[in-house]
Write a structure and sequence with these properties.
Helices cover about 50% and strands about 5% of the residues. By secondary structure, the chain is mainly α. A six-stranded mixed sheet has the order 1-7-8-6-5-4, with helices on both faces. Helix 13 packs antiparallel against helix 21.
């Protein structure tokens, strides 16, 4: 059975796969540049953008895309029972006077999740009672199921949705407000939650009902969205062991339980290892070169750690591995030994002592292989690809062609860096290594383009950036975004809440935005996730539809003193990226909840809207609308904008190889690794590194121990998707270029078409069909090559 649907999946995807791969692979040079809840997924998921290894100048998107997930939505006029304001959270009537089930906030009929009052003590009783109720609902469904929408899909969606929403609340709080108590509570009830999900995913009555719909005479009359739902549910059921019996099913379920536990522990170890490193510096000479913003943050961190009199000018200063601290050190610290110490600590996170993720990785890979074999697959990559557009061979071929195309430009990048460092008097010029690359790259970029990223910060204050982003959304998609603070409870006073309205001023969605780094309780990176999903089944209070709600989470530099958050250009790109994900979730017009928004979209295509939005950071009118000095209001000088655009393709070959390394080691581990075999996980990383890094990976590099994308998230055998979706997103943006980026009328018309296709159709139509609906043709790699400055090279070759 698994083989049959896998072959059909490969046939369906081959058109787009062949087209993109054949065209993209024929080019001689290419440069670099978050699945969603389904009925059967045992682990929730996220869309995210996180830092996987030491940053290089350019756009970083890698690290854990833990893809945990919630999901749900609604539309309501009345205010929820608990609210907050920008001040300290007020007492809530639902709070904690009693631990009884009646007052447990997780079990209430809430309009917005009660993030402000959920505590660790609510998790055990709340989740257990929820599972008891859902088990009763499932038994009732199985006893009355019929192969019709009202008697199968609608009651199923209610079961799936409620679990995803409530578990999503708990898991989200673990990501943004972690504590030992919350970890302990989740760890205790997680096996019970997974057990129920497996029970649901392996329900033979539900599976048989979906098969009956697929084989019925009315199949041809179903909408595209409903056909996609049925096909996806059948595939997911097979992948979750519905066809297994006896000992095989027992073993499969044991593996799923263990994988969930290991994934959770991996993520916790990365967070704890990141928090563990603290370097207090008292001699300012040791941090010479660090810009004022980095010094201010380091002093503020030191003050929070008990050094009350710390100041940016006189210290002491505390360096951590949190991105807003780590990245400036690698970019600007003249102290080479400091850069080495911090770099080594970063790439060796969670690789020793009680926080060592090495045995966890080995066990995860071993269990994934066993799971694949039970399902009839050769390796776990085949399992992963069963629900994607690509196949293992095509993904590997694509990566190899891109690697080959990027190698010579990357070698030239390194030669340019050595020459520049030597001319600048760098003692290490002839022996540049990993902790030198970012530092000297930043110096070369400053020299070549006269751009100092730190000097740009005052032009990118968070309030101005958000105003410009919302203005762009209005122009492109004819929506208005308004603050709605106080309407919904939040988990931290820094969190903002927004309402999205259509051109008639009617609410169509909501979203939370949690912008700042909080290393003591919040995991690193950036991600978007759904809170509620659009659905006609789950509409309430007489409304025709339940509106979608999303949350966007970043880890950018927080305000320091009386200054607002002043962002790097890369942080601006990150916000645009995550907002692209949120737009696809919020602007969906699918009323079928199981394929609304980001749900049901093949993983290879899910990054299209997010990467598409990044392009607007280089659009002159857009950038000028956000780039205004936070004190004087002066716009970014025109010549600086021109230099920013010119620097967009700086070190393109090197940045491409960096992403290819991550994607290649991911595929190698999930296709070639043999548990207890002759090649260890680190041997594989070293082998891949020799092919994808101009400077060989350090022998002691343990980057894999913090590669949460594939060990604590949804990118296992799927990291290549970033490159795949980049072809689609670049081509989508080229539609606006073709229409005319200087014409507001053309932008609005093309934006309307983008909204009505890419953003509106969700998972209710195949990604290739949706793309053709928007673009009028199949995708071409030419815009990606052109955007990355490699088209002339490719053309001449």
């Amino acid at each position: 059975m698994a083989r049959a649907f896998r072959n059909r999946n490969a046939e369906r995807s081959s058109r787009l796969l062949f087209f993109i791969a054949a065209n993209m692979l024929s080019a001689s040079c290419v440069a670099v540049t978050r699945s969603l809840p389904t009925r059967f997924s045992p682990a929730p998921r996220h869309l995210c953008l996180l830092a996987a290894a030491s940053p290089k100048p350019g756009h970083n998107k890698s690290f854990p895309c833990p893809l945990w997930s919630a999901s749900f939505s609604f539309c309501l006029d009345r205010r929820p029972k608990s609210t907050t304001s920008s001040a300290a959270p007020p007492p809530s009537s639902m709070a904690v006077a009693s631990d009884s089930l009646d007052s447990n906030p997780l079990l209430q009929d809430f309009a917005f999740p009660p993030f402000d009052v959920v505590e660790p003590k609510h998790v055990r009783p709340g989740i257990r009672e929820l599972l008891r109720k859902l088990e009763n609902d499932l038994e009732k469904l199985e006893g009355t199921v019929e192969p019709t929408w009202p008697r199968l899909v609608e009651p199923l969606e209610k079961i799936v949705d409620r679990l995803q929403v409530v578990w999503g609340i708990v898991n989200h709080l673990k990501s943004v407000k972690d504590s030992p108590e919350l970890r302990s509570a989740i760890e205790e009830v997680q096996p019970e939650k997974v057990k129920f999900q497996l029970r649901l995913g392996q329900s033979k009555p539900i599976y048989d009902a979906f098969k009956a719909i697929q084989n019925s005479s009315s199949w041809s009359t179903l909408s595209d969205a409903r056909k996609r739902i049925v096909e996806a549910q059948i595939k997911e059921a097979v992948l979750n062991g519905v066809a297994l019996e006896g000992e095989q099913r027992k073993k499969f379920n044991e593996i799923e339980q263990e994988l969930e536990k290991l994934s959770q522990k991996f993520s916790e170890n990365v967070l704890d290892a990141t928090k563990k490193f603290e370097k207090l510096i008292t001699d300012k000479k040791e941090i010479e070169g660090l810009p004022a913003t980095a010094l201010g943050l380091a002093a503020q961190t030191a003050a929070l750690k008990g050094h009350e009199n710390a100041s940016a000018e006189n210290g002491p200063w505390m360096i951590t591995l949190d991105a807003p601290s780590y990245i400036p050190v690698m970019q600007h610290a003249k102290n080479r030994s400091l850069r080495e110490e911090v770099y080594r600590a970063y790439v060796m996170r969670a690789s020793s002592g009680d926080l060592d993720n090495t045995p966890i990785i080995r066990q995860i890979l071993k269990l994934r292989l066993e799971k694949a074999n039970i399902l009839g697959y050769k390796n776990y990559a085949e399992v992963s690809m069963a629900m994607k557009m690509a196949t293992v061979d095509r993904a590997a071929e694509l990566l190899e062609k891109l690697r080959s195309a990027s190698w010579d430009p990357a070698v030239q990048d390194m030669e340019d860096l050595k020459t520049f460092a030597g001319n600048a008097g760098g003692a290490e010029a002839n022996q540049l290594t990993h902790w030198d690359i970012t530092f000297w790259s930043e110096r070369l970029r400053e020299s070549k383009y006269d751009i100092n990223e730190e000097e740009l910060r005052p032009y990118f204050s968070l309030p101005k950036v958000m105003d410009g982003l919302f203005g762009l959304a209005k122009k492109l998609f004819d929506i208005n975004i308004e603050t709605a603070d106080g309407l919904a409870p939040v988990w931290n006073n820094d969190v903002k809440f927004y309402c999205v309205k259509d051109s008639s001023n009617n609410p169509i969605a909501y979203f939370y935005f949690d912008p700042y780094s909080r290393p003591s309780e919040k995991r690193g990176g950036a991600w978007m996730d759904e809170v509620f999903a659009r659905s006609y089944v789950l509409a309430r209070d007489g409304a025709p539809i339940r509106l979608p709600i999303a949350h966007m989470v970043c880890n950018q530099t927080p305000p320091v003193g009386d200054k607002p958050s002043l962002m790097t250009f890369r942080e601006v790109e990150t916000v645009f990226h995550e907002f692209g994900h949120a737009l696809q979730h919020m602007l969906t017009k699918q009323d079928e909840g199981l394929v609304a928004g980001i749900r049901g979209i093949e993983w290879d295509a899910v990054e299209l809207p997010s990467q598409f939005m990044e392009n607007w950071c280089y659009h002159r009118n857009t950038l000028m609308s956000i780039a205004k000095h936070y004190e004087t209001g002066e716009p970014l000088p025109e010549e600086v904008y021109q230099r920013l655009v010119a620097a967009k393709t700086f070190r393109a070959g090197s940045l491409s190889l960096r992403q290819i390394r991550f994607a290649s080691v991911d595929l190698e581990l999930h296709t070639k690794y043999i548990p207890n075999g002759p090649e260890s996980i680190f041997d594989i990383d070293q082998r891949v590194g020799r092919m994808t890094q101009v400077i060989p990976v350090l022998p002691e590099d343990r980057f894999l121990c913090s590669f949460s994308h594939i060990f604590a998230g949804g990118y296992a055998a799927g990291y290549y998707s970033y490159k795949w979706a980049e072809v689609l997103s670049a081509d989508a943006f080229s539609a606006f270029e073709d229409a005319g980026l200087d014409s507001d009328k053309a932008i609005r018309e093309t934006g309307h078409r983008f909204r009505e296709t890419i953003l509106a159709l969700g998972g209710g139509k195949s990604p290739l069909e949706v793309f053709v609906d928007f673009r009028g043709r199949e995708p071409s790699p030419e815009p990606l090559l052109r955007h990355n400055g490699l088209l002339p090279v490719a053309a001449s070759a």
